[in-house]
Amino acid sequence: MNADWLPYLVGAVVGVPAVLVLYIVGTDWLIRRLPPATHPRIRPWVWVAPALILVAALLIYPMIATAWISLLSKDGTRFVGLANFANVLSDNSVLIAIRNNILWLVFYTGLVLIFGLILAVMADRVPYESGVKSLIFMPMAISFVAAGIIWKFMYSYQPKLPGVAQTGTLNAVWTSLFQQQPIAWLIDHRINNFALIFAAVWIWTGFAMVITSAALKGIPPELMEAARVDGATELQVFFRITIPLLAPTLTVIGTTLVIFALKAFDIVYVMTGGLYETDVMARRMYGEMFNNSNFGTSAAIAMLLLIAVIPVLVFNLRRFQFQEAIR
Amino acid sequence: MKGSRLGRVFPVVVLLSLLVAACGPTSNSSSGGGKTLDVIATWSGDEQKSFMAMVKPWEDQTGNKIAYESSRDVNALLTTRIQAGNPPDLAGLPGPGQMIQFAKQGKLLSLDGAVDMNALNSQYGSNWVKLGTSNGHLVGIFIKVAIKGLIYYDPKNISSTGVDFTTPPKTWDELVSDANTIRSKTGKTPWCIGVESGAATGWPGTDWIKDFFLRQAGPAKYEAWTQAQEPWNSPEMKTAWQSFGDVVNSSSMTYGGKNYVLSTNFGTAFDPMFQSPPGCYLHHQASFITSFFTHDFPNLQPNTDFNFFGFPDINSQYTGPQVVAGDLFGMFKKSDAAQSLIKYLTTPAAQKIWVKRGGAISANKQVTLDNYSDAQTKAAAKLLLAANPPEFDAGDMQDNALQTAFFQGVTQYIQNPGQLDSILAHLEQLRTSGA
Amino acid sequence: MSVAPVAAPRVAETPIVVDAGKEPRRFTLGSLPLNLALILLTIIWIIPTLGLLVSSFRPGFLISRTGWWTALFPPYQFTLQNYTDVLQTNNLAASFVNSLTIAIPATVLPIAIAAFAAYAFAWMKFPARNWLFLLLVGLLAVPLQMTLIPVLKIFNVLGLSGNFFGIWIAHTAYGLPFAIYLLRNFFGALPTDLFESAQIDGAGPVTMFFRLVLPLSVPALASLAIFQFLWTWNDLLVALVYIGSNPQYAPMTVTIANLVNSLGQGYELLTAAAFLSMALPLVVFLALQRYFVRGMTAGAVKG
Fold it and tell me: What is the ipTM score, two decimals?
């Protein structure tokens, strides 16, 4: 045991937030003593400074380093310009990984959002709401390794031979209920990407549901009541009132999911290791870095991921500007 | 009100926590007398316990301690720590290929001063010492070794097919004809194969190819291959892959077809062999697989319920070679304690400990066969000591990129046998560009 | 007490039931299909977890040989062996405490720091605000693996690796982009006139932050706390890299990963371990659920 860490733990949990509050209150006291015109130029920076400093050291600096490494040779000794990018983008297996990331982008993001929204809205209207939400949320609490084990049980394959029973849940249902040939869910390249994506959807739906639900609770019930009094059907209430009011939150969840889809790693790594045309960019980056010691290539892939996020950011920028305009 | 009360409490809390923090722990790990060595290795579960049992006498004797971390993804952990400038004192390495890479980068330190080279050469034999040597310096020692490419079977089931393994087949052709007998007598597929193994999926298939290549092309070519001197698209290499393909790609020879082979973990692939009625009769795997047998079928007894023979010869020019593998141990930070641990680990006294606990073979000749607690490991150790010559796993000798590509190539070949030429061309391109 | 006069009349103006527990439920339209669909969806969702739960009570040698559902029919072959094996692991209790020691600050700190920043991004006007914010959101896309080596180098110099300080800082920084993004969205959705009336009453940004924004954003803060806790609780990679050199500080994930040997043997223990390590996050979730209540922001929204 590390009982001698208890003071530090208390210090971190109580002390640091307290220092933060003191810092904000203290600097605000100082700012108020300055001419009012200077306030808007100083105050915001005081509030964002702690976050910016941490992020600069642990995320921005490593990314700048990565950008530099992406221009160097495999062992980091020679400057090679954009050669790593050219190599990566002309590699057929990378193109397959990009295609798979697009599949993830569309299906993982879409399904998680839709399931999360449906479940949050439906659960909101039943008395056993917290029970349902806890059960849907449960997969989020399972580690990726354990989730990998679960889905290996789900997708397990046994040949169709006399006396051989299926051990995988899906194949058991598929062969007995529908009398079909068993499917090698993780091997067959027509279906394996979707098998992986569905495992991820199963995990992340709880995430979308919880946040959607939190936003849903913020919608004043009088708005819906008023619409119902005016004779709106439940579907109309859902599409005309609930969805528009949830739109900003759904955008946040959607953006986060799109980025997670680009970074998809754990499920693929645990379940197929990227074989059978299921590879994705982040797994590839990991392999190039830690297995192949190809730092230049892995840095180039990381930069491609960052570039891929730009359209999502532009979309968000538009939305802020719109939000500002109507405020 | 709430806000103002908080306002009064906060400064007190801050002051308190700063005070407490100021008299918190000053140092974090130096307890007791000796030095604590940081060790990273792949061994976890029972392997970790066996390794810790192995170092216990050294800890007791010297007063030093081992802080042991294991990760199955040891490459990622080691790469990160080495690149960031805080490598562990010592590490168990995945194979000679990775070891030589670290040695070339100057990260892995020479053990020349740590061990008595004369004792090492006489106790281990030059082959094993050579494998731990890079650029003329000893950089790795073997903690435990294994023999690969053994053919396992269930003696009761085999005898019911009319095939007799009391004198094992001498040649591959004999084994093939035995397999055909099994098939015609029982109507079942003779072989069970499964190559799934997470991020390393495919390796059990590469073991087949190594066994074929060693016995078809001979030890000289095989050694050239381990040194990345042998082209992957040579006719001999293609023959080795095709020989494996004759088994794995034939639905009358291998249980369940390619979907079973690709999606079944190597640790359960043999299950049909022990079921009644059996789904297959033969299984090719390294000596460690017996613990997987008894895991899935706790009632199985060695010798009566499962037994093995070595992979038979193919070309009469080359008789008795065996593919072996082993876990190496190397030093990243030099210290007296680290050197003394390395020296201790090579001694017969230390090597006996893991052997007696089971699941390992020692390459140290002074660890005699009577140290092995079970008959099967003893028989495997005997085969390993008699190997002529023992050739190290050609996959483990390559650098990681090529080894992983080899694994993946096998999965592609099983999926699409027609792509063999392009798979081999890709491997050859990796070999020539990486060297 | 400068804010209360603003909010109070609003609540009075809109006499809608505020307490969620007593809110009248409407099961008018399609109530039965709704219930059926929800229950069906929930059942589909728990089948994999149920499979894992059943498997965790089965002997290891059966798990790979027969489907988990066969255990539900006689002959029953249940065992507690997986659980007893996991519970007897060396240092399990210590690593549980270590996990808590890591996860609690790693949850509190990013939320505290992010809340201030998110408020500035949502309600203060300053040059480059949107660009800076987009940069932060863009950092969500930074693959964690790329930061390990440069950050570990910094930590080594500052003596922050091999103890809890480094991992607290790391989890805090890694958690900030999402935390700021989520909170800025919730803060920004609060009604403008609320701030305007507070300002007329002479409330400064500090007062508004603590008296208006935080209380009104409790559901968002609660959901953020849940996820940040989960992610840090289940993290293996960051822990291995930043506190790896000191196994005495190893969290549960590291201890559990070591149950399986390098060849993957003993994976059945992971089924039991998964449920043991899942217990606490679920308790956190259930505890924080009571903050997901309608009415938190009732009366604080434009009519």
Answer: 0.89
- Which residues of B make CB contacts under 8 Å with A? 7, 10-11, 13-14, 16-18, 20-21, 23-25, 73, 75-76, 79-80, 101, 198-202, 255-260, 262-264, 272, 277, 279, 399-401, 404, 408, 411, 415
> Cβ contact (<8 Å) for B42 and C153?
no
CB contact under 8 A, B67 and C245: yes
The partner residue sitting opposite A123, judged by closest CB among C38, C114, C150, is: C38
Rounded Cα distance between C169 and C191, Å, is 34
Helix runs in A156-186, H state only = 169-176
| Residues 224-283 of chain A whose Cβ lies under 8 A from any Cβ of chain B | 269-270, 272-273, 275-276
Q: Residue B380's closest CA among B321, B434, B315, B310?
A: B310
What chain B residue is nearest to A91 in terms of C-alpha separation? B426
Given the structure tokens 């499962």, which residue do they identify? B306
Q: With an 8 Å Cβ cutoff, is B268 touching chain C? A: yes
Tell me the three state secondary structure of residue B249.
coil
pLDDT band at C245 (very low <50, low <70, confident <90, very high): low
Residue A296, chain B, CB below 8 Å: the answer is: no
C98 Cβ under 8 Å from any chain B Cβ: no
Over its length of 327 residues, how does chain A's per-residue pLDDT go in tens digits? 466 778 888 888 888 888 899 998 899 889 889 888 888 888 999 999 999 999 999 999 999 999 999 999 887 788 999 999 999 999 999 999 999 999 999 999 999 999 999 999 999 888 888 889 999 999 998 888 888 888 988 999 999 888 888 889 999 999 888 888 899 999 998 999 999 999 999 999 999 999 899 888 878 788 888 888 888 888 888 888 889 989 888 998 999 999 999 989 888 988 888 999 999 999 999 888 888 888 899 999 999 999 999 998 888 888 878 877 776
pLDDT digits (tens, 9 = 90+) for B392-410: 888 888 888 888 899 999 9
User: Is residue B418 classed exposed, middle or buried when 0-12, 13-18 and 19+ CB atoms within 10 A define those classes?
Assistant: exposed
DSSP B313-328: B-STTS-S-EEEEEEE
pTM exceeding 0.80: yes
The answer to whether A279 and A142 are in contact (CB under 8 A) is no
Q: Parallel, antiparallel, or unpaired for β B36-41 and B65-70? A: parallel
Phi first, then psi: give them for residue B39, nearest 5 degrees: -125, 130
Number of Cβ within a 10 Å radius of residue B85: 11
Substitution target from B296, B297, B299 for chain C, most C beta carbons within 10 A:
B296
Nearby residues of B237 by Cβ (< 8 Å), 6 or more positions away: B213, B217, B225, B230, B231, B424
Handedness of CA C52, C54, C58, C61 (dihedral sign): negative
pLDDT at C303: 30
Count other C-beta atoms under 10 Å from residue A36's C-beta: 8
User: CA A305 → CA A52, A310, A313, A318, distances in Å?
Assistant: 22, 9, 13, 21
Query: Is residue C70 predicted with pLDDT exceeding 90?
Result: no
